[in-house]
Each structure stands twice: as structure tokens, then as C-alpha cells.
Design goal:
- The protein has one helix spanning 5-8, and strands at residues 12-13, 22-28, 33-39, 43-48, 53-59, 62-66, 69-73, 78-81, 87-91, 96-101, 109-110.
- It is mostly beta strands.
- The chain starts with a helix and ends with a strand.
């Protein structure tokens, strides 16, 4: 699956992964940050927390552990992570996901 050119033209984010692991394209408002994540390699995020987050898988799979439960999400499925909820994430190579963060400044834009 490939995102359309107009989405790929959106600004990148400064995320804690090299670009060969994950690419990102983002739209920001005063109230939220919406990110298209494209994973080229498997990625793991250790347990962490932040403001509310909602996401959906377009392609591939995302596994999230929160509240002592682990669930794997597939294309068309959504996840909702509450404010301050500690969670860990595993993402398979080839995954494309859209995530919306209530914290507009969750990640800084690059360029």
C-alpha cells in the first residue's frame, strides 16, 4: 500500500526512530496532531504515556499492551489510548497507521 503524493508531501516529524525504520507525515492544528506512520522495519516502543491518542491501522498490524492486556490490531481496526495510560507498542514492518494525538506538540515538525 502506498499513500497518495499529496499526503507524502506533508511535513515529516522528528520522531525517535531513523527514517529507514519509520517515515511520518503530519497535519497539525492548535488542538491536535494527525500523523501518517509508514513502518519500513519492525519497531518497538517501550512502556510510556502521554495525552489521549486515537489510531487506525490501514495496512499491517500494531500490537498494543495497556492495562495488563495485549491486543493486535489489523487493517480497519481502531485503538483509543486514554490520557496518561501507560502502553507499549510493537509494529510490524510494512504497517501504515494513522494516529491522532490530543497534544498538538507531541512531536515537532521537520521542515
Amino acid at each position: 500500500m502506498k499513500l497518495p503524493d499529496f499526503l507524502m508531501a506533508l511535513p515529516r516529524l522528528d520522531v525517535p526512530f531513523p527514517i529507514d525504520v519509520v517515515e511520518s507525515r503530519a497535519m497539525r492544528t492548535d488542538d491536535a496532531l494527525v500523523v501518517f506512520f509508514i513502518f519500513h522495519k519492525d519497531a518497538s516502543l517501550p512502556p510510556h504515556s502521554h495525552g489521549p491518542q486515537w489510531g487506525t491501522v490501514l495496512h499491517g498490524e500494531v500490537t498494543i499492551t495497556m492495562n495488563s492486556a495485549t491486543r493486535t490490531y489489523h487493517p480497519g481496526e481502531t485503538y483509543d489510548i486514554g490520557d496518561g495510560v501507560v502502553h507499549a507498542v510493537e509494529v510490524k514492518a510494512g504497517t501504515i497507521a494513522i494516529d491522532a494525538f490530543a497534544e498538538a506538540d507531541r512531536y515537532p515538525l521537520k521542515g
